[in-house]
Design a protein that fits this description.
Elements (H helix, E strand, L loop, with lengths): L3 H13 L11 E5 L3 E7 L5 E10 L4 H14 L7 E5 L4 E9 H6 L2 H20 L20
Antiparallel strand pairs: 1-2, 2-3, 3-5, 4-5
Length: 148
């Protein structure tokens, strides 16, 4: 019997034309443009999907403060694709969300994955250029994927 996570991975694998499978820990990591690793894994109930990534390392200082302030502003928006957080262990800006595997099984998971990926890459690129956030037209967190 396949789980909802397996079904979602199969759909995403077919859409990306890329073999995706669970590792020994039950998660799946996808390398995007050789720049970003997006991690997918079911929660303990096997009803929700955790999607997340480390966007980029942020060294201590005023620039990190500015980036985190901008990320908090994004988190405050009503409709968002994901949530920003700071991972103290590796000093990284991270992006994550929990999604219903039921909804992803009935909808095309590629759409959400693309929005998540575009958002993470836009922030990674902006930060690498010394900006504290992408231009508003580049920030995709306000474009919901059928989220309620």
């Amino acid at each position: 019997m396949h789980s909802k996570f397996d079904e979602m991975l199969q759909k995403l694998s077919n859409s990306l034309n890329l073999p995706l499978y669970q590792n020994k820990k039950g998660s799946c990591a996808i390398l995007v443009d050789k720049k970003l690793i997006i991690q997918l894994e079911p929660d303990e109930s096997l009803e929700r999907l955790l999607i997340g990534c480390f966007v980029t390392e942020l060294l201590a200082g005023k620039f990190r403060e500015n980036v985190l302030l901008e990320a908090l502003k994004e988190n405050d928006k009503f409709d968002k694709v994901a949530i920003f957080a700071f991972n103290e262990k590796n000093s990284s800006l991270s992006l994550y969300n929990y999604l219903s595997l039921e909804n992803l099984s009935s909808q095309e998971p590629l759409n959400y994955f693309k929005e998540f990926m575009k958002t993470a890459l836009a922030w990674k690129e902006a930060i690498s250029l010394g900006k504290s956030s992408p231009n508003p037209s580049e920030s995709l967190l306000e474009k919901p994927f059928g989220l309620k």
